[in-house]
Amino acid sequence: MKIASVIVDVPAKQTDKTFDYLIPDKWKDVIMPGMRVSVPFGSRQIQGFVTEMKSSSDFKKLKEITEPMDLTPVLTKELLMLGDWLTEHALCYKISAYQAMLPAALKAKYQKKLRITDGTVIGDLPKNLQPFFAERDFILWEEIVKKGLVPEFQKEVAKGTVEVIYEVKEKVKKKLVKHIYPLLSPETLAIEKEKLPPQASKQKEAIDYFIKNSEPIELRRFTAELGISSGTVKGLINKRILGEKMIEVYRNPYENRTFVKTEPLPLTEDQKKAIEPILSSIGNNEHEVFLLYGVTGSGKTEIYLQSIQKVIEEGKEAIVLVPEISLTPQMVTRFKGRFGDQVAVLHSGLSQGEKYDEWRKIQRKEVKVAVGARSAIFAPFENIGIIIIDEEHETSYKQEETPRYHARDVAIQRAKYYGCPVVLGSATPSLESFARAKKGVFHLLTLSNRMNNQALPTVEIVDMREELRAGNRSMFSRTLLEKLKDRLEKKEQTVLFLNKRGHSSFVMCRSCGYVLNCPHCDISLTYHRFNEQMKCHYCGYEQHVPVFCPECQSDHIRYFGTGTQKVEEELAKILPEARVIRMDVDTTSKKGAHERLLADFQEGKADILLGTQMIAKGLDFPNITLVGVLSADTMLHLPDFRSSEKTFQLLTQVSGRAGRHELEGEVVIQTYSPEHYSVELAGEQDYDRFYQKEMMIRKIHKYPPFYYISLVTVSHEQLMKVVSVTEKISTFLQSRLSNESIVLGPVASPIPRINNRYRYQCLIKYKREPELGKALKAVLDRYQQEIVSDGLQISIDLNPYILM
Ligand code: ADP
Ligand code: ZN
Ligand code: ZN
């Protein structure tokens, strides 16, 4: 095998195929599929992924691979194949598909180093490699390349004695901690011990430790555990019995937390019925997709845990996806509590370095379970026994940038390969999934009761227009205020939820009605109180709040809408004695802030937790007996066919926060559209009726799950150009697709301009259109030149979740 097929890192149509490279003799047996390599391309040196090895090529005069970038493959055989699938199903270039599967640290500029793994001593290495680590903890990659020792080190890496670490320049700092370790073998240590004078009992104790343990140990821990001074250690180092070195420790974001070990709970009859088919799918190696439909608190997570346990017992691995915002400490605790060190956690709160460390644990098979947000679906396990997606209806499982994949689809694809089950869990399944379950494509498992048959909280819907008519101009209805006071007296806790999306505070002139818009985008600016700035959430533009109206010069310029800060101020006025914790983008931007605020609330340091979407999920505190939703309908009026579904899901989700334990819960939903079915049925917590009603509407309007949709968005600085290109695309697609399909466009996008670029779109609705992928690729090819040279942008989303 002297030739490697390589996908090069040039995301363009012409380079979206493999290029053959010769493997120079010195890299023979080193280079393997799934490794990244550095190759000459044109006049440049670029990175690429080896996808295949072969003995001959159709091309003559092949260039040579310059050098490997990895010593072990970063992509498994299965992930390489998954890349092919992703390319087809997300219409992306191969290179983008592969890049998406790797942690960010591997994409950044980095310095590659080798070090001895924990638990290995220099003496374990072949003689000729030992000198490399004699005085140092790391050796640079370039050095072993220059000395021609890559194959030898690769053998060590395969054995696990040496590992490659990537030190990302500037971005990731490795965490180094002083460790001590024995320089001598246990036998020689024993001899050295005998030589010590009788009064050196502490030094003897220290040596005894290393006669039994040869791994390096953190100096601080060593002195604390053995109760000896660092002077004692120093003495042994001076005698050249012990050595000291700085060792990189895995950054462990959960370092200071201990997880109480939990045992599997005896399952209820409902749970037994639900878990049984999952366990048999695991046992029989049969791929099946389960939809686990059960209200919050019905015991879904316990089913996940026990299914995973079975998977681990079978020597296999599990991937668990949770939405980013519900990847709360509580959720992590439940998995770590059950499976301890066998769990790696991946989420955006981690630094690049921490994420890379967690990923590496998966790659090296040091863990059995990967819990994480969307991108954890690419965890490089090679023996997957189950994939679980909690809150499967969450739209954050869809990636909104290239490659535009949905984690659910990727999960099913991977599970088919491994012959294992996918479990989708939700109290409010997406219409797509529930429809599939009803048709028998997915296997429906239902948990109809809450644990201990706790009653669902009672929900009261308050019509805010009535409040206004009764002279109440406050953002709190009379009912909600009364209940808030009641909870304060009883020392019970309240969660106040503000639906911010689509309803951020904006500035308007009360005299002339002028609204402050972004000068680059057709959208109003959002008011940020803490620095008195107006900000555009699309392009980042910022300006000060004007004193006078730019239109009529009046000074009656005010901000409208209810941001969390404004609610907090109002609370301080009407309930000055209440202690409030506010959780929003501003108060949680610092690392660990989210966790700390929740812990404070749990410890009873506040009466009211006020927040946005991020508090809608995962909270499970016994003392919460009241949930207030300040404005239920802010999402209803967005130009999105899923807005009713999202509203229903969110309201149901929030209501589930109350009364999860002994104390009964109450929910107050304030709204300007009490008659809307999504609000009304969320109040009754009636998913089944909501499903029927919404399915009817989707059918009439030809939306998913009855039709598939794809969205083409065109943007450019010149309006005329955008209109004409979108026009041509629409006509072209119309001519290529069957009569049953509907092409809607060209029309201006709901946000017609972002960052000075005009935006037009074309929406395609279809039932079966095998040629669509080809037609859309043809569109991209046709405009390739203008995309490269003229700043034209065409984005294609085969299953859009954002229609703006
Ligand atoms: P969900 O994931 O559906 O919200 P959970 O699995 O979190 O539900 O269960 C809700 C509560 O009930 C949790 O506190 C959990 O520990 C408890 N629970 C779950 N299953 C059992 C069981 N079989 N026996 C006793 N308690 C259980
Ligand atoms: Zn803007
Ligand atoms: Zn004005």
Structure overview:
- There is one protein chain.
- Strand 31 (742-754) and strand 32 form a beta hairpin.
- A 7-stranded parallel sheet has the order 14-15-13-16-17-12-18, sandwiched between helices.
- Helix 20 packs parallel to helix 21 and helix 21 (677-683) runs antiparallel to helix 22 (687-700).
- It is 33% helix and 23% strand.
- The model has no long low-confidence stretch (mean pLDDT 86).
- The longest helix is centred in the C-terminal third of the chain and has 18 residues, at 719-736.
- With 804 residues, it is an alpha/beta fold.
- The protein is globular.
- It folds into 7 domains: 3-108, 3-Layer(aba) Sandwich (GIY-YIG endonuclease); 110-169; 176-248, no CATH class; 269-447, P-loop containing nucleotide triphosphate hydrolases (Rossmann fold); 458-504 and 561-698, P-loop containing nucleotide triphosphate hydrolases (Rossmann fold); 510-557, no CATH class; 708-797, Ribosomal protein S10 (Alpha-Beta Plaits), CATH 3.30.70.600.
- It is built from 24 helices and 33 strands.
- Adenosine-5'-diphosphate (ADP) binds at residues 265-268, 271, 294, 296-302, 451.
- Adenosine-5'-diphosphate binds next to helix 11.
